[in-house]
Write a structure and sequence with these properties.
The chain is of the alpha/beta class and about 450 residues long. The chain has 2 domains: about 5-200 and about 425-440, Rossmann fold (3-Layer(aba) Sandwich); about 205-410, Glycogen Phosphorylase B (Rossmann fold), CATH 3.40.50. It is about 50% helix and about 15% strand. The strands form 2 sheets. A 6-stranded parallel beta sheet has the order 2-1-3-4-5-6, with helices on both faces. A 6-stranded parallel beta sheet has the order 9-8-7-10-11-12. Helix 6 crosses helix 7 (about 125-140). The longest helix is centred in the N-terminal third of the chain and has 18 residues, at about 125-140. It is globular, with a radius of gyration of 22 Å.
Length: about 450
Amino acid sequence: MDTTLLAGLSDKSLLIIFAYAPAGLGHLRVTDALYHGLPKEATTPLLLGSQDNTITWLHRLMSLNPIIRGLTTWAERGIAENLTTYIYRNILRSQTDVLYKQMLTIIDERYTPPTKVLLVATHFGLAHQLAAIKERLEKEKNIKVILVVQVTDDSPHHIWCVPGADLIVVPSEKTKEGLVKYAKKIGANIEFAVNAYPISPNLSRPLSESREEQRYLQVDLSKQVSTQVIIPISGAAVQTDYFTKLVTELHKRSSRFIFHIVIKNAPFTKIFIDTMANFDFVHLYIATADRKVIENYEYVYEQNTIALEITKPSEQSFKALMDCKSESASVLLFTKPVGRQEEDNLDFLRRHKLIPSYSDERELWKMDKPEEMLKKAQFWRGILLPQHSKKSAEFIYWCLKTGIFRAMMNCKIRPANVGEHLHELNPDGVATFWDIIAKLLS
């Protein structure tokens, strides 16, 4: 980074605050990535978490309950989305008393009184609330407040359009176009920037040659080597029944599969944890706090050479942008999308040919023409699994047996349109995020 630009981030009168909410792990993962990617010379940041636990409860309810999920899906599109966004936005902006007092306390307790506050929000709820109190803070404390919102899915949900924000950062031109259109509709003057999805620097470390070779061996059935599989369970703990059956079905097909399950200890995960604890081919990494769950996930990759990751198509989808020789660049196997944002994330990967097209996906699931797919597989970083656990297990084993996974480990990322969308595929989105912010501060 240019030293002139860095001066803005290292200014002692600047206060940097990361604002996140415990609604699933995605928002916290992005906060973690940006936090650890902040230039070392920058002023020390603070973390501000939402005190509203109903956000987590609602997130889980919408993820698990098919009726609520259906209503949510309906409310996320067309005229219904305009109405629900308007209502939700106004509810959020009317409930800011606690947050305002928190902000005053943070500012007043600084040894060096700040003249400028940079707020980086990775959840729309806190973003709207911060936007609502921004001017009031500026007048009462005689400071400049800059609000930057990082969108955590490649999805143009209208609720991510935050009137009063100084900048909203999105992962693609497509999402930018959708939010710009909505901003004009509601008369909001907001600046948008497209930047590749921020992936934690802790996950992007290069793999040593020996570990790289070990990962190749894990997807070669002719080698007597265990295949290490990581399964991160979402903050809402959805699809645990699916994972229970998938793990047991895969082990039936081969004892070479060893599973590393990263999960939060909570009442709704107890049955799943107790079940998995009975299997000697499963290693559990249990945490009581969300931040510890993220640390455990990174620890598994640091301590083990992981070949496959079975995950929801949420924020982890964007690990598809990583170089295949990175420590955590395992082959990504996506479960059925839950919600519009996960469908949109898969759409991002399809647009950039990082996962199979719909037609190739259908051919793959037939499991009868591997020769045709092997040439295409070298451009894929992930594959969507069939809906049912038994079929998924059969499909995973077929991909292993036919060499599909081995071909994917040599993935050469090619953008769908080199000139226009190359910036969306940058594997170092964290560094470029801070470049954008430094220019904003200057």
